[in-house]
Amino acid sequence: MPVLGPVPLRSIRRSHVMEVVRRCSRDLGLGPLVTRYTVATLRAILAAAVAERLIPTNVAADKTIPLPKRERASGTLSAEQVAAIATRIEPRYRAMVLLGAASGLRPGELMAVTADRISPAIHLAGDVIPQQATVRVDRQATVGHAFAPPKTASSVREVAVGATVVRTLIEHVRTFGLGDEGLVFSTPTGRMLSSPYTSVAWTRATAGMDLPPGLTLHDLRHHHASTLLSEGINIAAVAKRLGHSSPTITLAHYSWAMPQDDDLILRASEAIARRLA
Questions:
Q1: Beta-ladder partners of 141
Q2: At 127, is the secondary structure helix, strand, or coil?
Q3: Which residue, among 235, 247, 124, has the nearest Cα to 178 in the 3D structure?
Q4: N vs C: which end of the chain shows fewer Cβ within 10 Å?
Q5: For residue 33, what are the contacts with CB-CB under 8 A and spacing of at least 6?
């Protein structure tokens, strides 16, 4: 970790944490996500040290330490842009881009998918490609290379995908194999992916593309949701697919993507008025 390599555990101060932030964001040119993840990792390490009574306090838990703000996207990805990213990203993560765009899974949910959570079993597929499959979502990958329950109780769900995604996943597993515990997407050594790891791959793939600033892997989920709604899919069905507890949440995030039938509404309103006049 920058700065802290030679510093004894008991000697780490708030100023050291601030220097880590400065080195990550300025000297190393790392983005807000990776910088915040680095501090979160340090915070977890120091919390463990406090629990073991190796140090008295966790200086990285100080909420007054200024962290770079998360970048907010100013637009959404088009189908053409998603296709371009899938082509440009490292082949190992191409199937993850397609699954994210075609399922609406959150990044942490994508990273937690294992072969036994896909039915029928893609790692046992023969020459006949199933026309659809179901991905069971019941956990997510978190900071520290650990698994945790999904974001909410409503996030536990089954998401259906079609033949194109199934074929891509089968080819992915045949090419790269499964990672630890049967992970479908993993590092080259088979370990669980993390947000900084995928962020680097995403940044490399999108470098030089004319994209709205601040877009991340999570925007594949936004692309999926906005596409479904723009096609007129029932908002309750979209909410269930995304793992939202209520269509109200989906509406709050994606109302802009729904068809704006102003002329149709005006004609219906006029028809009502004429019947009542």
A1: 147
A2: coil
A3: 124
A4: C
A5: 70, 71, 195, 196, 199, 216
